[in-house]
């Protein structure tokens, strides 16, 4: 019996088809569509064109400008195949107004017949001018004649196995089959939309059909910059779905239960929290005091805290985490702090140990590089409850780790953890409360990459956000300078001067081994060069200036030894990859050199710059850039370096980074590598975002079932990632 061909949506709509061993294997077309994420009819309908080609009219060659995409009808006047300097088919055509040369480096015998002298062709492609006249390279050609299309031709994002004609046919079929009815009654959305846009809100069906087949009189600029009313409809739908989803998650959490963490009311100044405050060698800033109160108020409730603590580099997030841990331990529960790298985790552990161990707090340290004996001892301390505070890497969430009564989980640099890791931490730490009620831990996430306002209102709308917007007193702003690679020796002279004054220096390289794809100096060679360059250079006590090397492939004991030598001041210059991006605190370091700075993201440059300026001495960050074979820097790289020179404000850096790179830099793995927003642009669509944020609660309250349907249509399998 012949196999019944299934549609691209069968397995998405009928679970039995995907679960049954008798289910037919997907066709080649279905497999190719799946690579684009097109498994439902609605996915096909929402697969919008990258650009459009105008096949609705024929133009005269004499009217075509250099660089135009044009469609002409012309007669073949000459054809030849040449073999020097390479094999190619050359065809000359004439439309009566001018001639044009068509060049094909890849062609078949059938094309020679189709483009024989005397044939009239309809030709479409990019026209280039030159010394020898107008030229088209590999244009699309077919016999002249036939009706012209009445709409612009869409060009879709695709994969190698899918040609544009096949994909267009699949999209058309999906568009015809999909349910494109508006989720909410048109009157409801029109009422909410009134006053937001300068135009009425289109229906979803009209918007999608138009974007797949725009009329020739449409201003292409409004399609390219997504300002057309049809695009506005899709942005409104998508942002509304995201806001409803975030609001649903927040309301779901309101029904969960967590341990109530309050300081013992009768101890007063004897609480661990009060004793830690008294023991600190510095006072808290007003911002730190405010944030500590916000966190304490959250943990005193029976609803799980889900708070994001954001603060610029050096704003003092670690001490806030320590005070939150003290409240948890005061209440008789355990606390865990998880960091993305061993260097950062150890930095936290050292600080917390210095503050809390003298106060009688039991601690444990967990990392993947521990020896089995040490690890077993730590696991026993954690399970017995002797370790009231546990600090470590992702080793904390492994199956063998069992907590006695963990109630507060702190995740530092949360955007550097994958979705699965964050979910594992939350799901792992369930506790049994009264009446067998499942308890969830309170969750405090920290980031030194400030979140722009629009991002906080969209991707992080389900979180409570605390902001440390004040730096501790005594911090000197870092001066940032941009130099071309040709001034490398000037920078090295500056390093010698700093070292002789007793200061320490970082030199950061992006790679540790040669790569033909990226022409970058590697850390190993740079280290050797700088050792030679600092020969004879001494520190104030007469000791030779030691140059250390640190990268992720070194054995852990060696990494620790190098880092400790730099922290202790025995090493003058540390050549490193970006493993020192966060967590390293050496107040005596006053100069940061970042090599090939044009290769780094803006927030990463800001994080690296934050390793200096941590003491009272004036500090400098030098961004060394190289243009390689290119004549100049790319516009994006230029914008990044310009931003670094113009501001030290992490919140302004974050705003510009969002404009340059989009939300991925901030979200990290929260979206599992997928773009959470396909149509809206947070840097441009603030007005629509404000509208969606304002109206989502009304629609969720009025139409809870329709609201859930709307979220599923627009976010699909991405809904779970918003919970992480």
Main beta sheet: strand number and arrangement? 7 strands, parallel
Domain count: the total is 5
Q: Could you name the CATH class of the largest domain? A: Alpha Beta
β-sheet strand percentage: 15-25%
Number of helices: 26
The tally of strands reads: 23
Return the CATH architecture of the largest domain: 3-Layer(aba) Sandwich
Oligomer: single chain
Quickly give the structural class. alpha/beta
Sum up the overall morphology in one term: globular
Low-confidence stretches: 1-22, 516-520, 664-675, 719-724
CATH topology of the largest domain: Rossmann fold
The helicity comes to 25-40%
User: What is the topology, as strand order, of the major beta sheet?
Assistant: 11-12-10-13-16-9-17
Straight-line N-to-C gap: 47 Å
In round numbers, the mean pLDDT is 82
| Radius of gyration using CA atoms only | 31 Å
CATH superfamily of the largest domain, please? Answer: P-loop containing nucleotide triphosphate hydrolases
List its traits:
724 residues; alpha/beta; OB fold (Dihydrolipoamide Acetyltransferase, E2P); 6-stranded parallel sheet; 26 helices
């Amino acid at each position: 019996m012949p196999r019944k061909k299934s549609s691209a949506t069968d397995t998405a709509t009928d679970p039995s088809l995907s679960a049954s061993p008798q289910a037919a294997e997907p066709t080649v077309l279905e497999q190719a569509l799946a690579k684009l994420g097109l498994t439902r009819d609605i996915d096909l309908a929402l697969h919008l064109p990258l650009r459009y080609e105008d096949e609705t009219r024929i133009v005269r060659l004499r009217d075509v400008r250099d660089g135009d995409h044009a469609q002409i009808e012309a007669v073949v006047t000459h054809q030849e195949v040449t073999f020097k300097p390479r094999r190619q088919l050359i065809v000359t055509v004439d439309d009566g107004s001018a001639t044009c040369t068509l060049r094909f480096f890849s062609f078949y015998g059938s094309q020679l017949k189709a483009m024989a002298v005397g044939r009239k062709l309809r030709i479409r492609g990019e026209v280039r001018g030159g010394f020898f006249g107008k030229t088209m390279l590999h244009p699309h050609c077919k016999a002249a004649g036939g009706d012209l299309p009445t709409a612009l031709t869409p060009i879709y994002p695709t994969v190698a196995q899918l040609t544009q004609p096949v994909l267009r046919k699949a999209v058309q079929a999906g568009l015809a089959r999909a349910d494109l009815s508006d989720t909410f009654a048109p009157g409801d959305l029109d009422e909410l939309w009134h006053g937001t846009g300068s135009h009425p809100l289109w229906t979803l069906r009209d918007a999608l059909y138009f974007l797949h087949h725009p009329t020739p009189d449409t201003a292409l600029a409004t399609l390219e910059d997504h300002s057309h009313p049809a695009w506005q409809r899709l942005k409104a739908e998508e942002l509304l779905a995201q806001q409803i989803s975030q609001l649903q998650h927040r309301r779901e959490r309101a029904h969960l239960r967590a341990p109530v963490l309050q300081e013992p009311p009768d101890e007063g100044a004897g609480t661990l929290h009060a004793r830690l405050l008294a023991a600190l060698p510095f006072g808290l800033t007003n911002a730190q005091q405010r944030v500590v109160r916000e966190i304490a108020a959250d943990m005193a409730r029976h609803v799980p805290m889900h708070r994001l603590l954001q603060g610029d580099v050096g704003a003092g997030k670690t001490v806030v985490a320590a005070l939150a841990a003290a409240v948890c331990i005061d209440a008789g529960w355990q606390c865990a702090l998880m960091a993305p790298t061993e260097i950062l985790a150890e930095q936290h552990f050292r600080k917390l140990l210095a503050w809390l161990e003298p106060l009688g707090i039991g601690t444990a340290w967990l990392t993947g590089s521990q020896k089995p004996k040490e690890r077993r001892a730590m696991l026993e301390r954690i399970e017995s409850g002797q370790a009231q505070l546990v600090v470590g890497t992702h080793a904390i969430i492994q199956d063998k780790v069992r907590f006695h009564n963990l109630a507060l989980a702190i995740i530092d640099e949360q955007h550097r953890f994958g979705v699965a890791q964050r979910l594992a931490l939350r799901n792992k730490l369930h506790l049994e409360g009264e009446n067998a009620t499942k308890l969830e831990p309170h969750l405090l996430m920290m980031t030194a990459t400030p979140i722009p306002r629009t991002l906080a209102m969209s991707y992080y709308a389900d979180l409570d956000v605390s902001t440390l917007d004040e730096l501790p007193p005594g911090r000197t702003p870092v001066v940032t300078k941009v130099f071309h690679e040709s001034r490398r020796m000037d920078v090295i002279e500056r390093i010698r001067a700093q070292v002789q004054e007793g200061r320490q220096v970082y030199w950061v390289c992006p790679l540790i081994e040669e790569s033909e794809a990226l022409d970058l100096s590697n850390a190993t060679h740079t280290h050797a060069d700088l050792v030679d360059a600092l020969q004879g250079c001494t520190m104030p006590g007469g000791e030779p200036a030691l140059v250390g090397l640190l990268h992720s492939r070194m054995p852990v004991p060696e990494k620790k030894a190098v880092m400790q030598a730099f922290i202790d001041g025995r090493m003058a210059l540390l050549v490193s990859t970006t493993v020192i991006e966060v967590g390293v605190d050496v107040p005596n370091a006053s100069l940061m050199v970042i090599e090939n700075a044009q290769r780094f993201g803006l927030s990463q440059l800001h994080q690296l710059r934050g390793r200096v300026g941590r003491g009272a001495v004036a500090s400098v960050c030098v961004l060394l850039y190289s243009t390689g074979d290119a004549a100049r820097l790319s516009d994006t790289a230029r914008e990044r370096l310009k931003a670094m020179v113009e501001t030290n404000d992490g919140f302004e850096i974050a705003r510009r980074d969002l404009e340059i790179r989009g939300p991925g830099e901030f979200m990290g793995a929260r979206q599992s590598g997928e773009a959470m927003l396909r149509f809206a642009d947070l840097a441009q669509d603030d007005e629509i975002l404000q509208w969606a944020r304002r109206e989502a609660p009304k629609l969720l309250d009025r139409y809870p079932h329709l609201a859930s349907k709307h979220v599923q249509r627009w976010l699909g399998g991405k809904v779970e990632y918003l919970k992480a």
